[in-house]
Structure formats: structure tokens, C-alpha cells
Fold this sequence. Notes:
Largest sheet: none
Order of helices and strands: HHHHH
Radius of gyration: 20 Å
Strand content: under 5%
Amino acid sequence: MATHAAMPGRRGARAHARTRHHTPLAWALPLVLGVIYGFYAAFIRRDGGPSTGGQVLLGLVAGVALAALCFALGRIQRSLPRELRAVAYGALTASAIGFLVSLTDTSVLRSTVLGLVVGAGVLCVSFYFFYTRES
């Protein structure tokens, strides 16, 4: 009697899988992060002087790169195991922070260490988050 509710419709699973849509958050979050990151990178490079085209270009490229990487990670994160997902978030954060610190004209060692420390923190926190929320 109730078997009709379990029967597949005319559109099978393949047709439904092809029409996957992104939620507004899947676009908005990487976009906002990229804009903020790009503005901050250009602001750091400006160093109190007048704005130049090179600084604007640097901010634009840095923001677009971070937004694209965040969007790509958001698209594939469900297919990754929690350990690899935490490593991916840690690596993305470490490289983003390391790049921002390198724009301040400090040593390579300082930007590397600070990026690795922040990335390791994000790795630990995200692993804990994924571990406690997955079944």
C-alpha cells in the first residue's frame, strides 16, 4: 500500500545529481573572505603611503586566489576524511597568514613560523570540531 511513496519518479538519481546547486553561503562566504583578505593585503602593502596600482592589483589577485581556494575546499570537503579535511583547512590558513606576514617586510623565518603556528592551531581546532560532530 505504501510502496508508491518509495518508488523513484521519472527523474532518476542521475538526473538529480546533475542539477546540483550551490547554496548562497557556498558563494557568499568565499567571496566575503576574499574581499576582506584582498583589502587587508593591499592595506599592509600600502604601509601608510599613497595607494598605487600595484597595491590594488596585489590585493585583487590575493583576494581572488583565496576566494577560489576557499570555494574549492568547500566543494570537496565532504569527500575528504576528517583528518585530511583538517589538514586542508590548516594548510590553507597557514599559507594565507604566512603570505600576509611576508607582506610586512619581515624575515622569511618569521612569516613561516607564524604561518605554521596558526595553521597548526587551526588544524587542531578543526580536527576536534570534525571529530566530535561526525557519527
